[in-house]
């Protein structure tokens, strides 16, 4: 009887639709921020040119 009851109950935490939407929006915001940061670092590297690699250790 316990096996039947366990299979009917979802395991872990079940999110509501509003929570799922909020999580997705937050994930997209983080992805955009990381993407912009990568582009910014790339642009700064290109502007500085190869001189970035020539420096004393």
Describe the protein's architecture and organization.
The chain crosses the membrane at residues 28-47. Keywords: Membrane, Transmembrane, Transmembrane helix. This is CoxF protein. This protein is mostly helical and 57 residues long. Helix content is 68%, strand content 0%. The longest helix has 32 residues, at 17-48. It starts with a helix and ends in a 9-residue tail after the last helix. The relative contact order is 0.06.
Task: Explain the layout of strands and helices.
Layout: H1 2-8, H2 17-48
List keywords for this structure.
57 residues, mainly alpha, 0% strand, elongated, transmembrane, transmembrane helix, CoxF protein
Low-confidence stretches: none
What overall geometry do the principal axes of the alpha carbons give? elongated
Helix percent band: 55-70%
How much is the average pLDDT? Answer: 84
| Tally of strands | 0
Number of domain modules: 1
Percentage beta strand: under 5%
Number of separate helices: 2
Supply the helix-strand structural class: mainly alpha
Biggest pleated-sheet summary = none
Give the termini separation: 70 Å
H/E topology pattern: HH
What is the C-alpha radius of gyration, as a whole number of Å?
Answer: 24 Å
């Amino acid at each position: 009887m316990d096996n039947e009851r366990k299979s009917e109950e979802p395991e872990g935490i079940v999110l509501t639709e509003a929570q799922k939407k909020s999580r997705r929006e937050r994930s997209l915001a983080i992805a955009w921020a990381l993407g912009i940061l990568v582009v910014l670092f790339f642009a700064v590297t290109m502007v500085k040119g190869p001189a970035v690699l020539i420096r004393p250790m």
